[in-house]
Amino acid sequence: QGIAQQASIAIENSRLVARIEQEALTRQKFEKMLSPNLVERVLSGELQIAKGGNIRTVTCMFTDIRGFTSLSEKTSAEDLIRMLNEYFEILVDVIFEYEGTVDKFIGDAVMAVWSAPVEVQEAERKAIEAAVKIQKAMETFNTVRSMDGLAPINTGIGVASGEVVAGYVGSSKTMSYTVIGDCVNLASRLCTIASAGEICVTGHAYHAYGGADIFKGVEMEPIKLKGITEPVSYWSIEGFLETGD
User: Fold this and answer.
1) Low-confidence ranges of the chain (pLDDT < 70)
2) Residue 140 and which of 13, 34, 42, 88 are 20 to 30 A apart at CA?
């Protein structure tokens, strides 16, 4: 009986250690994608992440540094990586603050999503707020860079919303969660046409949840974008109405 009890305790301890290690790995994985408050809600079971592909309505954001190729040619590899890490740190902090998910880094670009893998209330508004906050943060970032005698880092941002297929994509050896759909392509194209410091947002995303009462924006002429059949109507966002920015 004594040996059996000791064996039972050892097995239970082993299971406990395995469970703790698995929870730590799960937390580590989600912390790279989701804001801290969403991570806690997922781990507690309050929010569920569906397995496999599913249709979701999301808001997608792309950011991209203007003139990055030219900048990289004039900057050492070490300084370039340091600058990118500082830049990404700013963007990710803001995206997480507004409950977004970091989908991926693509060179100097960031793709973020709202409402995947977990639902986010008023996703369009929060995504645009995050975009405005990013551009304000970049002004501060560039002020510091200027004091150090460094060139400014300017980013363009595109935001669009719509239906996507969301799920894990990859091979049997490595997979990652992502979203695929027209609104992803649209956000990417809008990011491409955005000038330094500009935020380009589809009319659908802008008007959702009373965007016209929250943000200063200018309605632009519909534009033909690569890979998009019909001309796209969009707004150039200048800031928040209530702050006079």
Assistant:
1) 1, 4-7, 9-39, 41-42, 45-52, 171-175, 242-245
2) 34
Amino acid 227: pLDDT: 84
- In this structure, the dihedral spanned by the alpha carbons of residues 237, 241, 211 and 203, taken in order and rounded to 10 degrees, is -30
- Cα–Cα distance, 67 to 231 (Å, whole number): 26
CA distances from 85 to 148, 174, 176 (A): 17, 24, 21
Q: Which letter does DSSP use for residue 221 in this model?
A: P
pLDDT digits (tens, 9 = 90+) for 30-67: 655 566 666 676 677 665 655 557 889 999 999 999 99
> Who contacts 190 (Cβ-Cβ below 8 Å, separation ≥6)?
62, 158, 159, 160, 200, 201, 202, 225, 232, 234
Residue 214, CB half-sphere, CA atoms under 13 Å: how many? 16
Half-sphere exposure of 230 (CA within 13 A, CB side): 4
| Spatial distance between the Cα atoms of 20 and 158, rounded to a whole number of angstroms | 40
Q: What is the DSSP string of 122-158?
A: THHHHHHHHHHHHHHHHHHHHHHHHHTT-----EEEE
Q: How many CB atoms lie within 10 A of CB 188?
A: 21
Three-state SS at 11: helix
